[in-house]
């Protein structure tokens, strides 16, 4: 049985949202010291969740739930296991240093408080994603990460590039979120499970069902867009328009891994199928190669790191798609390593830009003496990224190579991993070495070491990567094993060591990777020039495709608007009645809901009289020479209905019908005489035929619908209720009046409000007057002043 999490846990989960509320006020009050105080929030969250590490490493899980929307089974529930715990520790731990880093990076910025607020909102949303147990709650937090990242990417909203990048990220990830929503609803509908714990306890509910394919595609739509998998990879590098703290937090360590988290979370119920093990490795491998090749083309440190982030996410998806226990172990290890070294390197890039005035590696050099601490952090993080000992990246690379060798198409998957890692080695070396070694280059700003707020994060994350490798056995026991258990559905054996037990193929592949990386680093200028030529030859890509898609969408919306909103009342009415006819008739024919044609009844003489009145009224409308006569004739139909009510024992309804018809005729006549309309309808014959067809279709639809309804068995339960309780509860003998005034009095009030509002609109319409533009019109007197706007 899952133990219940304490109230402190709930406070820890909600704490970032409280911090977001007070961050602007606290920043204004404490100014430069605000970051130190605000960083206590994620630090305390981190410390709290470390208390679960021991129990979770022994297979324990924790949960808590509160009813939120009980009618639909939506609970505010959380679930802590190895997978969610490691993500939580990464979010809160790295988040602590990001808050400190933002305090130094945006020191003196007028909107620093707002920036802190956005960061905490995102932190809370990301914690909600990885800790949510209820599927609907997970989706809500998922979309909140998209919204908060939109705010963070577009923080510098005065720049067009920032606005475009924010909009692009929102459109792509928001669209994927809609796919995820459809997938979540389909899962709930198919399995009946609203929570992840229930779903994970029934692993064949999805995998063994008939709806596996649509669920698979929809879940992939959410995961691929969030984790920037090809062909949705373009939004992540563009998001580097955001301030560097955003890049270091959202787009390396947390948000972009939400898609990977989702795939890992769903692996026990969707993985280990032919479709899963084909699509994920394919797209993941393509993303890995595209990301690393595009990274080699860049000279901006942040863009180089951004494209390698795309590549690393592709590697994680590829490994997750193998469904191999060893490959999944490598994926878990690499996820941890990547979060540490990439967060550190992004902060290094920001520090270099902040202190030297540029991030372009071709304009940097010799900064090692001026920025020794930053260089040390960059070197350690790059060693981990390159997969060299004694860092956690080395162990992750060894394990993932061992895992890929044992899967189907293992040679191809391993080759892709080796090439991708070799390219990442070259990029890591370029980012860590080019700006710091060699001859000193004059930079836009006098370079010097940044304050502790700027280098504390890179140093801490780089050293954590070192410590995780030096104490590899403990890392595997406390973090990797429990997380892998969440993916596999059982407790695996994880025994990690920094020094390989023997010389084998994984170690040889590591040596090949390093050799390839060194060669690519030495020839990086040549590779960059080649990539520039290739991209110029292609000339078109997903990024430009996004702009063209948005342009096409806007063009389509413009065309639809101009086609539908033409400014002619006649067109609007035609559309309304045409859609009404479709809505009435199509379901009847498609659902085989056509009624049986009844026998012709034996009318009594007064019933024949009412029918004759209705037919005469219809003939009068059709034969009317002008609009006013047609309007007056239209009231005859309503009077016929009123007579039916009167003769069949409903005098109150009859009186109401008489009043409504009389008032309608008066209002219509009054309005028609005030509008600039021709006395009669002189439309072309073709237009009259179309209108006639639509009119007949609407009338036929109403008739068939009413006939279908009346042929259904009559349920007297509601009538019996009103008859039984009208006198007892409402103290009225007239049941109709009691229903209108008491049982549905609020509805009646609403109807009265609608009638009053309609009357006010009619009054406003008939009082609209056109402006006279010439002195000659003034002599026309009252008629010119009263002439209203034309209604076509």
UniProtKB/TrEMBL annotation:
How does this protein lie in the membrane?
A: Multi-pass membrane protein
Q: Which residues form the MrpA C-terminal/MbhD domain?
A: 613-675
Which GO terms are recorded in the biological process aspect for this UniProt protein? Answer: monoatomic ion transport
Q: Where is the NADH:quinone oxidoreductase/Mrp antiporter transmembrane domain?
A: 132-416
Xref: InterPro entries: CPA3_Na-H_Antiporter_A, MrpA_C/MbhD, MrpA_C/MbhE, ND/Mrp_TM, Proton_antipo_N
* Compartments (UniProt record): Cell membrane; Membrane
What Pfam families has UniProt attached to this entry? MbhD, MbhE, Proton_antipo_M, Proton_antipo_N
Q: Which domain of life is it from?
A: Bacteria
Q: Where does the MrpA C-terminal/MbhE domain lie? A: 693-767
Name the keywords, alphabetized. Answer: Antiport, Cell membrane, Ion transport, Membrane, Transmembrane, Transmembrane helix, Transport
| GO cellular component annotations of the record | plasma membrane
Q: What range(s) does the NADH-Ubiquinone oxidoreductase (complex I) chain 5 N-terminal domain occupy? A: 69-116
Molecular function (GO) terms listed?
Answer: antiporter activity
Q: Which residue spans traverse the membrane? A: 6-27, 34-54, 74-103, 115-132, 138-155, 167-191, 211-236, 248-264, 276-296, 303-320, 332-352, 373-396, 408-431, 452-476, 496-522, 572-591, 603-623, 630-649, 655-673, 685-709, 748-766
Q: Provide the protein name.
A: Monovalent cation/H+ antiporter subunit A
What is this organism's lineage? Bacteria, Pseudomonadati, Pseudomonadota, Alphaproteobacteria, Hyphomicrobiales
